[in-house]
Here is the input.
Amino acid sequence: MQSENLNGRGPTITLDGEEVGFVPGESVYEVATRAGKAVPTLCYDPRLEAFGSCRLCVVEVAGQRVPVASCTTLAADGMEVTTASADIERLRRTLLELVASENREVKVDPLRGIASQELTTLVERYGACRGRFDGAQSGRTRADDGNPFILRDYDLCISCYRCVRVCAEQEGDYAISVANRGFATQITVEFGGHLRDSACTFCGQCVQTCPTGALADKKALRFAENGG
Ligand code: FES
Here is the structure.
C-alpha cells in the first residue's frame, strides 16, 4: 500500500521529513504508528473509536496553531507532521505529570491486566515527576461493590473511558457509564449501583483495556496471592 502511494497513485503525508502513504480515512496516529513512530497514547485502543481525551498523542501539523491529537485527526494529502519535537515531548511529559500526580499508585501489579502497565511505562519513558501537581484526587474506589469477579479500584482511574467504550462498542452491554463531569467524573453503573446488579456480564473486557490497573480480575489476583 505504501509503495503504491509513493509511486504517485495515492495520498501521502510527511512524517518527520519522510513521505509516507496512507489510505483515506486513516488517522495521523495510525499512519505514524505504521511508519514506526513511537507516539504515546493512554485513551487509545485500536479496537475502539478514537476518543481524544488524554492528548498524549499530540503532534505538530504545519499550519496549525496548536498541537493536535493525532488519534482523532485524519491524515490529509500533503500534511506535514512532526511527531516528537522538543516542545511536543515536553508537553507530553507535563500531561503525564498531571495524570500521575493524581494517581495514588503508578506501579501496579501486572496481573491487573494486559494493558495495566501502560501508564507506568509512559511515566518511566518520560521521567515524569509524580509529585509536581499534587492536590485533590478524582475518582473513588467502590469498596462496597462485592461482586466476585472485577476489582474496581477507581483511585487509579484516569477517566480515559476505555472501559466504558469497550463495554459499549465491543460488547454492546452499556453496563458502565460516566457520572458527573470534570474533576468529579466517576465511572459508575446505572443509578450508582453495584456491578452485580447491572447489565454487566463480567466478560472482563474492561479489565483488559484499563491502562492503569484500576480494574482487575479478582480471581487472577487471588490465584497469585495463594501461590497458584
Ligand atoms: S490517545 Fe489520542 S488523545 Fe488519547
